[in-house]
Amino acid sequence: MEENNLHRKLSSRHISMLAIGGSIGTGLFLASGSAIHQAGAGGAVLAYAVIGMMVFFLMTSLGEMSSYMPVTGSFSTYSSRFVDPALGFAMGWNYWYNWAITIAVELSAGALLMKYWFPNTPSYVWSLLFLIVFVIFNLISVRGFGEAEFWFALIKVLAIIVFIIVGILMIFGVIGGSAVGFSNFHAGSGAFHGGYFTLFQLLIVAGFSFQGTELVGVTAGESKEPGKSLPKAVKQIFWRILLFYVLALLVIGFLIPSNDPRLLGGDETQIALSPFTIVFSKAGLTGAASFINFIVLTAVLSAGNSAIYACTRMLWNLSKEKQAPKKLGELNHRGVPVFALVITVLVGGLTFLSSLYGDGKVYLWLLNASGLSGFIAWLGIAISHYRFRKAWVAQGKDLALLPYRARWFPFGPIFAGVFCFVIIIGQNIQAFTGPSIDWQAVLVSYISIPLFLILYGVYKWRKKTKYIPLQSVNLDND
Questions:
Q1: What are the angstrom distances between the C-alpha of 287 and each of 152, 204, 265, 283, 290?
Q2: β-sheet bridge partners, residue 161
Q3: In total, how many domains does the chain have?
Q4: 10: helix, strand or coil
Q5: Nearest CA to 41 among 284, 279, 254, 351?
Q6: Which residues pair with 223 in a beta bridge?
Q7: Distance from CA of residue 161 to its chain's centroid?
Q8: Residue 224 parent element (H or E)
Q9: Collapsing DSSP states into helix, strand and coil, what is residue 20?
Q10: For residues 211 and 304, what is the distance between their CA atoms, to the nearest angstrom?
Q11: Are 157 and 244 in contact (CB under 8 A)?
Q12: Distances (CA, A) of 260 to 18, 172, 289
């Protein structure tokens, strides 16, 4: 297979850290405080735990398919093979677009973070520097990219572990003065407040925080012994991420009451108000804000690096499936799809320039159009796995032949798929609850849905594709 030219050098160590690095970012380090403020510590933990369970089912679904059929840019291939080629086309381009816009977001965030130390340096200097670094990491080889991601993720993981240990010591009064105990967990309006609507909104926030775990599927075609490394990575990823999120949120909830107004200040421009900074400062650790700024910067750089990787591999895969120009499928001697990399960097760079010099509304629309793309990709994973397993049984194949078998089938993909669909439809439900429908808010929030449907419809009309019967599903993993 020509795919072997994509040097298979990603071990389970790289794959696990890639998924962890992709999903642990500003959502935990900054937005977690706002989540606790809105719904209480109990509400925040519940929301992240529920979304964590959904992600668990998605990861097992992806693990079953990718360990049997390891394909770079797997989402579009699985949708094309198991459901409908038009769905694969729409899924691939939807996912590429999502990460291409993410590049611009991370470039902007990185520049803001650098202003903490260098307030007088123009933002575009840092953004250009970061973009060059991303390109270098992705040009070296897949192993070079994997090593960079491993260390980016490791820094974040170590910071969270230190935070949890320090927090536990503070709760019991070992450091930071007298024992805090567990009273703050119920302080203010209680551990749960804000009602069902607030909790639902928090589920959406938690869902965005977990996005990036599906990068395991993108790396499938470039992993060592995918039948072994992918199942191992899938098993580790869920528990590690869930423990990091839930334990960190519990520590914050025990140490900072939910009615503390500082919890609403968690964004890239106010690192000093990050719940992590507040806790470290309470512990008497000097330079806490500067330390957290550095950690968040690594999270941003990790996300930008992963975005370029995901985009280039998805374009490469679309080219191999004849759903993108053939040129995008060409590799250099290091196994890197260079033309796909160039196109991705140009789109990400132009989007970033639109935020600096163009109409701010254009940038806002682009961001909103990419906002739901991750959930659409997750929904596609659930549908593809359901169809994959049904086709496997319908064609009389033995389940024991699968390198990794997802438990809880068919409940897992059905639960995850329904949950994703509900979040996609209800992400801005308040636009429909006023005296009249706010059509501008509806359009801004849901623009990714018609874009996805246009991609699906146009390809289906041009190629005359059909829904694939179970007996005709191609299960050849060669």
A1: 21, 33, 19, 11, 5
A2: none
A3: 1
A4: strand
A5: 254
A6: 10
A7: 21
A8: none
A9: helix
A10: 14
A11: yes
A12: 34, 21, 18
Two tokens, residue 162 = 């230190």
Q: 33 is written with which tokens?
A: 């405080």
- Establish if 475 belongs to a structural domain: no
Structure tokens at 374: 């991750």
Q: What is the mean pLDDT of residues 198-202?
A: 83
Count, residues in the chain: 478
The amino acid that residue 426 corresponds to is: G
Q: Is the pLDDT of residue 270 over 80?
A: no
Q: Could you tell me if 133 and 218 are in contact, meaning their C-beta atoms sit under 8 angstroms apart? A: no
Query: To which residue do tokens 């551990």 refer?
Result: 191
Per-residue pLDDT tens digits for 273-285: 678 888 888 888 7
- List pLDDT tens digits, range 391-439: 999 999 999 999 889 888 999 999 999 999 998 888 777 777 778 887 8
Q: How confident is the model at residue 462 (pLDDT cuts 50, 70, 90)?
A: very high
- Beta-bridged to residue 10, according to DSSP, are 223
What are the backbone angles phi and psi of residue 10, rounded to the nearest 5°?
-95, 115
Tokens of 265: 């200040």
478 falls within a domain: no
Amino acid sitting at position 447:
I
Q: What pTM, to 2 d.p., does this model score?
A: 0.87
Domain of residue 169 covers 8-460
Is 154 within the bounds of a domain?
Answer: yes
User: Which residue in this structure is represented by tokens 């980016």?
Assistant: 152
